[in-house]
Each structure stands twice: as structure tokens, then as C-alpha cells.
From TrEMBL:
Keywords for this protein: Cytoplasm, Glycosyltransferase, Purine salvage, Transferase
GO biological process: purine ribonucleoside salvage
EC number: 2.4.2.7
GO MF entry, a single one: adenine phosphoribosyltransferase activity
Subcellular locations according to the entry: Cytoplasm
GO CC, one annotated term: cytoplasm
Gene giving rise to this polypeptide: Apt1
Limits of the Phosphoribosyltransferase domain: 56-178
Name listed for the protein in its UniProt record: adenine phosphoribosyltransferase
Catalytic activity reported: AMP + diphosphate = 5-phospho-alpha-D-ribose 1-diphosphate + adenine
Class of this enzyme: transferase
Family, as annotated: Belongs to the purine/pyrimidine phosphoribosyltransferase family.
Biological pathway: Purine metabolism; AMP biosynthesis via salvage pathway; AMP from adenine: step 1/1
């Protein structure tokens, strides 16, 4: 699909076809959404679909997870007219932080951190990332928010796989993703 084409009818998830498959090997995600972000209508519809379940919910702040979650998170924050908080991989913030170790989708051990002065007790935060594969990265972000007294108002990602970690998140938090039910098995199997 070309980056200017907009389908005459736009069903939820039409923009998923804009994503490119992994050609670099197992240390990378199996799909790359950066091409979707280049398509103005695709990005707009993706953000609208992610936010639809949260219409009318109390959200004080949107937090995006390093790094592709920054794109969707900032777009969601702008749409909601809320502030944006970056949850970073360790070593990138030059302010007081709290850290949380985690294992990412490729099995690598990492540490995530967030500034300590942005979250106060009771602040309702929508967490946004591009993908929830094993759930390790999102769980680390949840731990950071809750450790600082914040409330996870919801979790939004282009895809939330039905992995053990993905199910754990979906059972405990209000979630939103863009994959239609008929396509979910293909995404879960990375096809």
C-alpha cells in the first residue's frame, strides 16, 4: 500500500497492512510499524482506534514506552489534550529516576526508568506502546507507575498478543489494541 492511498472504506485495522515484516532476524520485532506512522490517515485512524475504548474515562497523563511507544503515546496525548511522559530505557534521563528491570520480547535483560517528579499518587495514566508481545516491557512500565502511586487507567498498543504476559495484562487492566479478532491468531503466530 502506498503512503498516500486511503481506502474508500476504512475498517478498524486497515492500516495494519502498512507495517513491514522483519528482515533482520530474531533480535527484532516481527513487524515494523514505522511505515504506518508515515501515513497521515493511517496514523490518525490507529490513534482513534486505540483511544475509542477510553472515551469518557478519566485520564490525567499519557505515558509512552521507549522508543516506538513515544510516537503513539505523543499522538494519543495530543489527541486527548493531555501531557506526555516518556518511560525510558535506563541511562537516558538526567533527572532523579526510579528503575525497574525486565526481560524484553527477545529475552534480553534490560532496565527501564521514569522520572520521579511526574507521577503523584492517584494520577491516572494511559500507558502506550507499539506492541505487547511477551508483556515484559509493559509490565515493567506498570510497575514503575504503580510504585510511584500512579493508577494505570489503561494500556494501549497496536497489537496485544495472547501470550502469557499479554493475557496477564489484559486480565488486570483495561486494554485497547488495533488487531481485529479475525486477524488475532495470525498476529499471535507472527504470520
Amino acid at each position: 500500500m502506498d503512503l498516500c492511498h486511503v481506502p474508500a472504506t476504512r475498517e478498524k485495522g486497515w492500516y495494519l497492512a502498512l507495517m513491514a515484516p522483519n528482515v533482520k532476524g530474531p533480535n527484532y520485532a516481527w513487524l515494523d510499524p514505522s511505515r504506518l506512522y508515515c501515513h497521515p490517515q493511517g496514523l490518525q485512524d490507529c490513534v482513534a482506534d486505540l483511544l475509542q475504548p477510553f472515551q469518557g474515562d478519566a485520564i490525567d497523563l499519557v505515558a509512552g514506552i521507549d522508543a516506538m511507544g513515544f510516537i503513539l503515546g505523543a499522538a494519543a496525548a495530543a489527541t486527548l489534550q493531555k501531557g506526555f511522559l516518556a518511560i525510558r530505557k535506563a541511562g537516558h534521563l538526567c533527572v532523579q529516576t526510579v528503575a525497574q528491570p525486565y526481560t524484553d520480547y527477545s529475552g534480553r535483560e534490560k532496565v527501564m526508568e521514569v522520572r520521579t517528579d511526574a507521577i503523584r499518587p492517584g494520577l491516572r495514566i494511559l500507558l502506550v506502546d507499539q506492541w505487547v508481545e511477551t508483556g515484559g516491557t509493559m509490565r515493567a512500565a506498570i510497575e514503575l507507575v504503580e510504585r510511584l502511586g500512579g493508577v494505570v487507567a489503561g494500556v494501549a498498543a497496536i497489537c496485544m498478543e495472547n501470550s502469557e504476559g499479554g493475557k496477564w495484562i489484559q486480565e488486570r487492566y483495561k486494554c485497547s489494541h488495533c488487531v481485529p479478532p479475525r486477524l488475532q491468531p495470525r498476529f499471535d503466530q507472527h504470520q
